[in-house]
Amino acid sequence: MKLLELRLNHFRNYQDATIPFQEGINILYGPNGAGKTNILEAIYYLAITKSFRTSIDKHLIFSARDMFRIQGLFHTTQGQEIVAHIAYSITRGKHLSVNGQKITRFADYIGDIPVVLLCPSDLSLSQGSPQQRRRFLDVLLSQSSKIYLHHLVQYRRALKQRNLLLQQTAVEDSLLESWEENLIKNGVLLIQKRLEVVEELSHRVQELYQRLSKTGDKVKMVYRSRINPGKGQDLETVYRETLRSHRPMEKELGSTLVGPHRDDLLFLINGKPMKTFASQGEHKTFVIALKLAEYHYLQRQKSETPILLFDDIFGELDADRITQMLNHLGSMGQVFVTTTSRNFFEKVGNALADVHYYYVKEGTISPVEA
Ligand SMILES: Nc1ncnc2c1ncn2[C@@H]1O[C@H](COP(=O)(O)OP(=O)(O)O)[C@@H](O)[C@H]1O
Ligand SMILES: [Mg+2]
Known about the structure:
The structure is a single chain. The chain is α/β, with parallel strands linked by helices and 370 residues long. The protein has a domain at 1-113 and 309-316 and 335-370: P-loop containing nucleotide triphosphate hydrolases (Rossmann fold, 3-Layer(aba) Sandwich). The protein is built from nine helices and 15 strands. The protein has helices at residues 36-48, 130-144, 146-166, 173-213, 235-253, 274-277, 280-302, 319-329, 342-349; strands at residues 2-11, 14-20, 25-29, 67-75, 81-89, 93-98, 101-103, 115-118, 219-224, 264-269, 272-273, 307-311, 335-339, 355-361, 364-368. The strands form three sheets. It has a six-stranded antiparallel beta sheet, with helices on one face. It has a six-stranded mixed beta sheet with strand order 8-12-13-3-14-15, with helices on both faces. Strands 9-10-11 form a three-stranded antiparallel beta sheet. Helix 3 packs across helix 4 and helix 4 (173-213) packs across helix 5 (235-253). The longest helix has 41 residues, at 173-213. It is globular and about 70 Å long. The two termini are 24 Å apart. The structure holds adenosine-5'-diphosphate and magnesium ion. Adenosine-5'-diphosphate binds next to helix 1.
């Protein structure tokens, strides 16, 4: 997938901008606060229909305006043209169209423009909160599987309803049970898909990690859930029993304690939890391997090359890791990179073909001759 042109209207600090992009590596450089991340945010928003920085769409609107628009002209690997357009207005909400056709269910569209984002907060994925790791799985699976996204939406709806009931003083078990069945119906698929993707990514991450770190260290990912069927046990049955046994405690606390919304991913290095045994450098290498594995996974599932978005991560990494990563990227599709220092990038980037520079300043962006 390639983004050939991006148009922004009243998005963040861009009033009105039309930016042509190129195949290969697009490097956006400029001072802090210029609007570099805003560009990556717009591309991500167009693909995922949400920001990675805020869940409040209103904050994305240029000061004192009441709506923003983002439009992208994409070419698929097969040579098909996609014009995606999203408008958000405070009064009318979010509207999406593709090639002029209105899309009412966003879940039917998400994944058609696959993206992989790597930003500074990802570098703590292996040390951060379980929520961050669940989000990683959800964003990946929502792009690769429309069924997953559909069930995720249904699951969240059921969870909200059950939690509201649990917060009431006297609630009938039969009412709770009907929402539990709904949770189980959707949650089983979420758990199965997550188990599958973790299994597959884990092998790939292991290979990439060894290649990047030039060590024989063994890294592994394991999906952790309280709903944990033993050999020969059925997931659905165990799910139902686990919910039932937690019900008294859940009534007391007013929230659902078990299920995919509480699960986690465990990262291991040589059989030990990375959280307590890995160095900072090992964490970083691991996350890069994980992101590259995510990229390969999406590419295979969608038969389409994802767009890579690297936000300001080069300051966080040493030259050796950057060079290795760029060498790996050399063979990939379109990449967007933000950095405050073009000089720094030129040192490592000159060896690569197909590098294009853009200068960003105070809400304007323009291509620069190399
Ligand atoms: N809704 C908005 N309206 C106008 N300006 C905004 C809005 N949201 C953020 N900004 C401005 O965008 C700039 C930050 O842009 P960002 O892309 O994060 O910078 P960087 O180039 O450092 O990545 C800041 O100057 C901020 O004031
Ligand atoms: Mg930034």
